[in-house]
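Lecture notes, structural biology module. Today: joint structure prediction for complexes of two components.
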Amino acid sequence: MTQTAQFRAALAALIPRMRRFARALTGNVADADDLVQDTLERALTRQAQWREGTRLDSWVFRIAQNLWIDRTRSRRVRGEVSDEEALLAAPGFDGRAAAEARDQLDKVRKAMAAMSEEQRVVVGLVLIEGYSYREAADIIGAPEGTVTSRLFRARAVLDQAFAEEIAR
Amino acid sequence: MSDTFERLMAFVDGQVDAAESAPIRAALQVDGALQAKEGEWRAQSQALRAAFDPILEEHVPERLRAQVAPQAEVLRFPSWRAHWRGLAIGAGALAAAALLGFQFGTGNNEGLLRSTPEGVRAKGALAQALERQASGPAAGKAVAIAFTLTAQDGAPCRAFRVPDQGLDGLACRAEAGWSVIALGTQTKGAPASFRPAAGLSAGVLAALDGLQGSDTLDADAEAARIKAKWR
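The predicted structure, tokenised, for the full assembly:
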């Protein structure tokens, strides 16, 4: 196989994880897959910028989160629908789940919707994709302390979502 | 206080090594609030994974798979039909063919090629050989056919040599006759033995790759196609 064929095969293998991460950021299937599509496109056009021997997955997730943060910022500037509304309205989760599991999913969805974009990125990278704080810091291009503080605040949002459900 | 909880969070998230985790474990033994938080956070992590992990098992949409599908490694011509409409053998190539010594028909029966608006057609002895002659050595004949194959779009194509002129080429059968899609000069001292692709010029071999065709037809299959007038 040529180098390009290997690169394409490696990207193809990452698609399921990219879709999971993108779903965490966008909250719905259509926006998530659009984001994955744009990410793949950028990865292919910028293949030369990826240094062999470094992790392709980290590089691709960095592209995805940059695209998403840029997009949400420009959307906010244009005064479009808030992300929270979009998330709450979006059929992003599996409807076949049993009642108890659905209740859990509902909490997760509400909590994700209530987070800032930056918090959601860190939750996606660390709690869903399983990156270490250090790796997540490299991906978002920020100090490790920033990851910790964003995650800590995101945990507080999760705490609240889960506590409200219990209080009912 | 917040610092203690931040360290607890790092502990829950598996970010601290054994030495660093010892004091946290000790604190958990005696601090009910810490214990409660640890339980909540572990439950949250589990709920997040339960919500998002099933996405890994979902069917990947075709539009995403197509984006990173393997590309053909062979340089692919749009199709040989596009070629004989003038892409491969355009005016420049025609001039080159003339320079190579191909005789163009000017009402002259000796000519092997004819220029048409759709490209270059075989005529005369070349057209006859392409239409009726079996592949293999052709002592005493003007044209030798090297082999026959079927292009990806189903058209029969034949590689040929014009030994006297040291030329070779590739032609495919179209409705109106044989379209010549590649021409070349054969390397000097081409092998006397008649091995299929051996001795064909680089341009003709490249055109063959571009056809993405079948394996060469064996003698029986070829004879049947000739008998059926390539229909």
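Point to remember: Residues 3-26 of chain A form the longest helix (24 residues).
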